[in-house]
């Protein structure tokens, strides 16, 4: 009830909560592009891509984003989440092998589950564990006398993990992938526009080539690009196959043309202003620096630790030690921050319950997303508010934390 | 005894029907709205045909006279009786549309596929021998490491890829046709060419792109919101963009809820007379994420055999046991339900935690509506939950556009979970789930679509709100009423004329979808190309969307069509039907 009242009071708060990393949401170029597209095409597309739901705006974003990513082709889905799940299920079938990082987010794990392939999990970002799994599989092959070309095999990772704010050690993973002959399915939904010098994502960050080092790459247009939908990029074979086998592509209505036009506009902004990415990365560095500076009060007084990668725009803070009140503390911190004018997100944790196919349980955490639009003042204010609120809230539970 | 209780429920439902029909005939508004009735000359016939189908398939007025006979169920205490009547029930009911596949068409269809497959294999063989061919992937000189077949399995293999290469690509030009306009009654279809034997299609270039103006008989623009968008919804939607972003870049449960999202949900709940509703970003995902949230291991899902892929995906993802009943066959549904309750879970024989029956309002490939009143009757009898997917029927059926439930005279309170999409009738995007407050608040927390996925675009929310208000008449005009009436008239007229031509038309009157059977694989492309030549944009469907023998063309009628346009289209179709020999109703040879 209190939450509702707060919303209805219309607070003006600093936005450290949504995945609009580059601040395109509020840009005039996107608004203009959407308005133009709406005036031309109306709102909905009224049909799946196969049946007159392909509008030239869709073709445009497919062409531009595949060029931008240095791939042959791209295929547009109308929703970011279904991009991942449909893509995996389109390629991995019963009898194939998927080796998946335990930290992947929900759409990927749903896709993995839907594919009905044999799934092997490796510990999050643990290259040794990955190699262990691959070696085990190799040993099984030898035992059964199975040729390596008998099964399709994929490694599934995220460039930047949404839930954990960690970055996949792609260099090592790709080396292993080549060594053991696996294909790589890489989700760049959160790394696109945030990692790499020009915002091309995790592959660029690690100096790897698209299509060669990662055969299948999925990108949601909902985060950095501030629009709606998702694309899969890859070579002609990868993309063409999905046009008939991607469930979310074939059997769902296509994206409203204005979202495609908006994505084109934001992609052009990203292309013409690579300094935006640099500004974001500078903001990320500054944020971590601030958090590091106050490490004393964060870890000692509030018992929080930063667990995300220092290059990640998704900053994750967790409690130092497990507590029965974790989720209460996190929501308490979030509410307190909101009250003081800073919007951050408390993830109350995800149980690997029956409704989601997540492999691992996620501890409750605080999630802060850094944007290119933030000024140093904003970041300072956020960090101070966070520390004050965290100390306040954790002290309430201090007895239980001892 | 069971038999008495069941007849009591059936009489209760039938008496409801009686009241509704006598006191306020939902279709009595016809004269009021249509002073200048474009279908005045055929009005009587249309109404007769529609009420015939309605009483046969939706309200079952014919059955009510001998209600006892049709709804008495075998006595469980008496084993002999039980067995004999169960045997009777296993006799397959005739399909609703009662269209028999002509033997001639079946043989030629099989023959056609055999030739195609044989030619495909010969081509593949020669390509392999010569080492050249447009589908031969050059794995020797390929720059991609994953093309090395010594270490990697081919990414695409087997029958599916063969089908794509050798069958689908031949007629690729009939699908995915890009358009360069709004998807209204009249569309501009971009011409494409292929210079590699239909393997890839490219837009014509040169002096700009070439677009062909076509009459659109393919889009799900049932209520015609794409045609008059600027008048009905445009202003509001453009206004909403002024202060709200295109995407919230956050999920519903975090910071992805705007005031418009709440309004959408309230409007939907009000429209459907449900307590609450939840709006998600994608219709497909609505099914994919809510079914797993509602059911899990230990539950049983009973699904119509023709249910949409999204339901199939959702059901699979849930981990629940799945049983399939024959399309619209409530006897079979009842059989499965009884079996499931008696036998319990496999092996352990413990009772199911819950049983949910999933049906669709209108089946998109059949044009048939669900036999909802009987489904509800059966589900109530056995205490199963009902999940109704109204993707195609919401807005398009019923006197006030409230979907299949309204049309079949079923109270929405009897349907536990109502799902639908905004993509079709309302010209927007996304889907909703409507139900009781408890269910919806549970789903808000638990369903991946609202807990993890990006929320609806605020502009799309505004489109939904505006179009719903038009349909409900809350905008102060009677545009919505007119639209619903026009859609019904257009569809019934079109269906009647198609049937008069002697085509095999599937589906029921009052449904805006009408598939016409083509059977032969060659006719799929021929029909589409001939129609396209004549300025008609039609949808043709083949395997795997429909069974291999039942290729069809599918017309979706809209309120935006005028009678003149439809007459012209019918003339052209008649022409094409002559050329392609499609009149299977009047002759076995078409």
TrEMBL record, chain A:
InterPro entries per record: Aminotransferase_I/II_large (IPR004839), AON_synthase_class-II (IPR050087), PyrdxlP-dep_Trfase (IPR015424), PyrdxlP-dep_Trfase_major (IPR015421), PyrdxlP-dep_Trfase_small (IPR015422)
Matches recorded under Pfam families: Aminotran_1_2 (PF00155)
One example GO MF annotation: pyridoxal phosphate binding
Pathway(s) this gene product operates in, as recorded in its UniProt entry: Sphingolipid metabolism; Lipid metabolism; sphingolipid metabolism
UniProt keyword annotation of Mitochondrion present: no
Tree of life domain: Eukaryota
Gene3D superfamilies: Aspartate Aminotransferase, domain 1, Type I PLP-dependent aspartate aminotransferase-like (Major domain)
A single GO cellular-component term on record: endoplasmic reticulum
Named cofactor requirement(s): pyridoxal 5'-phosphate
Domain Aminotransferase class I/classII large span(s) in chain numbering: 14-385
Keywords from the UniProt entry: Acyltransferase, Lipid metabolism, Pyridoxal phosphate, Sphingolipid metabolism, Transferase
Any single GO BP term: sphingosine biosynthetic process
UniProt key word Transferase: yes
Enzyme Commission number(s) from the entry: 2.3.1.50
Broad enzyme group: transferase
Family named by the database record: Belongs to the class-II pyridoxal-phosphate-dependent aminotransferase family.
Name of this protein: serine C-palmitoyltransferase
Automatic annotation (TrEMBL), chain B:
Biased composition (Low complexity): 1-15
Gene Ontology terms describing biological process: ceramide biosynthetic process; sphingosine biosynthetic process
EC number(s) per entry: 2.3.1.50
Keyword Transferase: yes
GO molecular function, a single term: serine C-palmitoyltransferase activity
Catalytic activity: L-serine + hexadecanoyl-CoA + H(+) = 3-oxosphinganine + CO2 + CoA
Bias (Basic and acidic residues) ranges: 51-66
Top EC group: transferase
One GO CC term, this protein: serine palmitoyltransferase complex
Region described as Disordered: 1-33, 51-93
InterPro entries with a match to the protein in the record: Aminotrans_II_pyridoxalP_BS, Aminotransferase_I/II_large, AON_synthase_class-II, PyrdxlP-dep_Trfase, PyrdxlP-dep_Trfase_major, PyrdxlP-dep_Trfase_small
Superkingdom, taxonomy of origin: Eukaryota
Sequence ranges assigned to domain Aminotransferase class I/classII large in this UniProt record: 214-573
Record has Protein biosynthesis as a keyword: no
Cofactor entry: pyridoxal 5'-phosphate
Pfam families, sorted: Aminotran_1_2
Keywords: Pyridoxal phosphate, Transferase
Family classification: Belongs to the class-II pyridoxal-phosphate-dependent aminotransferase family.
Identification of the protein by name: serine C-palmitoyltransferase
UniProt source species: Fragilariopsis cylindrus CCMP1102
């Amino acid at each position: 009830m209190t939450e509702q009242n707060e919303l209805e009071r219309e607070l003006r708060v600093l936005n450290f909560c949504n995945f609009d990393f580059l601040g395109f949401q509020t840009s005039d170029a996107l608004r203009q592009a959407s308005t133009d597209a709406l005036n031309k095409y109306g709102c909905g597309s009224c049909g799946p891509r196969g049946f007159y739901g392909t509008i030239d705006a869709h073709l445009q974003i497919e062409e531009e984003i595949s060029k931008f990513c240095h791939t042959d082709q791209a295929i547009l889905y109308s929703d970011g989440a279904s991009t991942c799940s449909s893509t995996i299920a389109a390629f991995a079938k019963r009898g194939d092998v998927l080796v998946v990082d335990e930290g992947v987010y929900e759409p990927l794990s749903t896709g993995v589950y839907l594919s009905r392939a044999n799934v092997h999990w490796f510990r999050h970002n643990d290259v040794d564990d990955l190699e262990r799994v691959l070696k085990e599989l190799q040993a099984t092959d030898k035992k059964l006398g199975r040729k390596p070309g008998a099964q399709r095999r994929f490694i599934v990772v995220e460039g930047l993990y949404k839930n954990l704010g960690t970055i996949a050690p792609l260099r090592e993973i790709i080396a292993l992938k080549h060594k053991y002959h696996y294909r790589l399915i890489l989700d760049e939904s959160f790394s696109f526009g945030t990692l790499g010098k020009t915002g091309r994502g995790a592959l660029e960050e690690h100096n790897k080539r698209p299509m060669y080092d990662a055969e299948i790459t999925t990108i949601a247009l909902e985060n950095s690009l501030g629009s709606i939908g998702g694309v899969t990029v890859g070579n002609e074979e990868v993309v063409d196959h999905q046009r008939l086998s991607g469930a979310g592509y074939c059997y769902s209505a296509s994206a409203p043309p204005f979202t495609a036009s908006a994505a084109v506009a934001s992609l052009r902004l990203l292309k013409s202003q690579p300094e935006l990415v640099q500004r974001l990365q500078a903001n990320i560095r500054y944020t971590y620096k601030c958090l590091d500076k106050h490490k004393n009060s964060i870890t000692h007084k509030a018992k929080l630790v930063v667990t995300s990668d220092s290059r990640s725009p998704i900053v994750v803070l967790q409690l130092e030690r497990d507590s029965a009140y974790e989720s209460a503390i996190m929501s308490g911190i979030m509410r307190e921050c909101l009250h003081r004018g800073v919007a951050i997100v408390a993830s109350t944790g995800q149980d690997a319950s029956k409704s989601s196919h997540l492999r691992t349980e996620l501890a409750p955490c605080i999630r802060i997303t850094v944007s290119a639009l933030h000024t140093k003042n904003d970041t300072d204010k956020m960090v101070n508010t966070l520390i004050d609120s965290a100390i306040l809230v954790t002290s309430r539970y201090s007895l239980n934390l001892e | 005894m069971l038999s008495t209780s069941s007849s009591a429920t059936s009489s209760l439902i039938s008496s409801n029907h009686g009241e509704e029909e006598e006191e306020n005939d939902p279709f009595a508004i016809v004269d009021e709205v249509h002073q200048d009735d474009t279908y005045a000359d055929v009005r009587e016939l249309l109404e007769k045909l529609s009420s015939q189908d309605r009483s046969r398939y939706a309200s079952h007025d014919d059955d009510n006279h001998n209600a006892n006979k049709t709804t008495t169920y075998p006595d469980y205490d008496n084993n002999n009786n039980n067995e004999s009547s169960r045997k009777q029930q296993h006799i397959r009911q005739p399909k609703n549309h009662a269209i028999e596949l002509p033997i001639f068409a079946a043989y030629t269809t099989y023959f056609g596929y055999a030739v195609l497959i044989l030619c495909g294999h010969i081509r593949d063989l020669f390509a392999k021998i010569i080492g050249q061919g447009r589908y031969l992937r050059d794995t020797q000189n390929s720059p991609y490491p994953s093309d090395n077949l010594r270490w990697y399995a081919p990414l695409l293999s087997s029958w599916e890829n063969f089908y794509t290469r050798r069958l689908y690509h031949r007629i690729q030009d009939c699908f995915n046709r890009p358009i360069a306009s709004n998807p209204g009654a009249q569309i501009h279809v971009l011409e494409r060419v292929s210079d590699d034997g239909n393997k890839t299609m490219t837009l014509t270039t040169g002096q700009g792109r070439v677009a062909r103006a076509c009459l659109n008989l393919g889009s799900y623009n049932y209520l015609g919101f794409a045609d008059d968008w600027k008048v009905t919804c445009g202003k509001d939607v453009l206004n909403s963009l002024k202060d709200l972003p295109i995407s919230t870049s956050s999920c519903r449960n975090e910071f992805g809820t705007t005031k418009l999202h709440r309004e959408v949900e309230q409007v939907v709940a009000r429209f459907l007379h449900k307590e609450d509703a939840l709006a998600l970003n994608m219709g497909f995902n609505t099914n994919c994420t809510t079914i797993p949230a509602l059911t899990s291991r230990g539950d049983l899902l009973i699904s119509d055999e023709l249910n949409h892929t999204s339901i199939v995906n959702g059901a699979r993802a849930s981990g629940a046991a799945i049983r399939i009943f024959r399309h619209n066959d409530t006897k079979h549904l009842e059989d499965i339900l009884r079996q499931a309750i008696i036998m319990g879970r496999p092996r352990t024989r413990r009772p199911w935690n819950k049983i949910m029956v999933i049906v669709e309002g209108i089946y998109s490939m059949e044009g048939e509506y669900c036999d909802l009143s009987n489904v509800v009757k059966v589900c109530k009898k056995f205490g199963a939950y009902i999940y109704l997917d109204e993707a195609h029927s919401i807005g398009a059926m019923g006197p006030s556009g409230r979907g299949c439930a309204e049309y079949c005279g079923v109270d929405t309170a009897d349907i536990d979970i109502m799902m639908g999409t905004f993509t079709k009738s309302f010209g927007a995007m996304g889907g909703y789930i409507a139900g009781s407050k408890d269910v919806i608040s549970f789903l808000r927390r638990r369903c991946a679509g609202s807990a993890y996925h990006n929320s609806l675009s605020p502009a799309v929310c505004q489109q939904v709100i505006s179009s719903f208000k038009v349909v409900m008449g809350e905008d102060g005009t009677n545009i919505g009423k007119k639209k619903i009436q026009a859609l019904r008239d257009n569809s019934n007229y079109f269906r009647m004329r198609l049937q008069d031509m002697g085509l095999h038309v599937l589906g029921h009157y009052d449904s805006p979808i009408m598939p016409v059977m083509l059977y032969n694989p060659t006719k799929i492309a021929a029909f589409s190309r001939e129609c396209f030549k004549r300025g008609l944009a039609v949808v043709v469907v083949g395997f795997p969307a429909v069974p291999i023998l039942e290729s069809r063309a599918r017309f979706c009628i809209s309120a935006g069509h005028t009678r003149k346009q439809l007459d012209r289209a019918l003339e052209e179709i008649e022409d094409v039907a002559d050329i392609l020999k499609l009149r299977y109703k009047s002759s076995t040879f078409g």
